[in-house]
Amino acid sequence: MNEKEIILKKVLVFAGTSISHEDAAKVLDATYRPPISRGDIEKAVHQGYRIIGIIDGIFFSRAAVGHKEIIRAMQENATVVGGCSMGALRASELDIHGMTGVGKIYEWYRDGELEDDDEVAVATNPDTFEPVSSPMVNIRETLKAATNSGIISSGECKDIVKLAKSTHYTERSYLGITKEASIEGIISDDTSKILLRFCTENEADVKREDALLVLEKIKKIISK
């Protein structure tokens, strides 16, 4: 086994919601595990992984990965890269301790443009970890794109964002949001249908884009 193969065997990425393991493996040769929860990173370090990527993580159903355990992993010479979802949250809080953060969402949290965990949270299929609701960060950017396309006004966009934000993260969907916006009189029925079509066909998938950036960052680290 050559040196590069040894390094690759020590790379672990926690994902599965924002990007599938199959799609991620096309970008980065690594070991992939489901979204991270409390205790997982400690196990990874003990198993010899020295480059760890955090993309997705458990939020509410089980204890989330803790700050201290990530810091301990870095103290044991593990390189931890985060972005997209749980990775963005923890990187924005721990970059001063050496965690590497990448992507728009990480920057939004780091700069205080976003604060709430529910901005990246989604309901998932318990067997596959695939999302069954839409993340608020994607909804915001998709509605901005709809505004730029002239489908809704900036005022309507602001009101629909508020409506989406007030909806529990497990129930956020473009169908539900556009329908409720029509019921609330924010937009007409016709505009609601046009907006729904735009959102479903042109979603700004910021989470997936940032997940890919995490993988690309790890590739750069490996190649050094």
Descriptive tags:
2 domains, elongated, single chain, 11 helices, 224 residues, alpha/beta, disordered N terminus, Rossmann fold, five-stranded parallel sheet
Topology, element by element:
Layout: H1 3-8, E1 11-14, H2 21-27, E2 31-33, H3 40-46, E3 51-54, H4 67-75, E4 79-82, H5 86-94, E5 100-101, H6 104-110, H7 136-148, H8 154-166, H9 174-183, H10 189-201, H11 206-223
Short description:
With 224 residues, the protein is α/β, with parallel strands linked by helices. It has helices spanning 3-8, 21-27, 40-46, 67-75, 86-94, 104-110, 136-148, 154-166, 174-183, 189-201, 206-223; strands at residues 11-14, 31-33, 51-54, 79-82, 100-101.
Domains, number: 2
Give the number of DSSP strands.
Answer: 5
CATH classification, class level of the largest domain: Alpha Beta
Kindly report the oligomeric state of this protein: single chain
Shape: elongated
Q: β content, as a range?
A: 5-15%
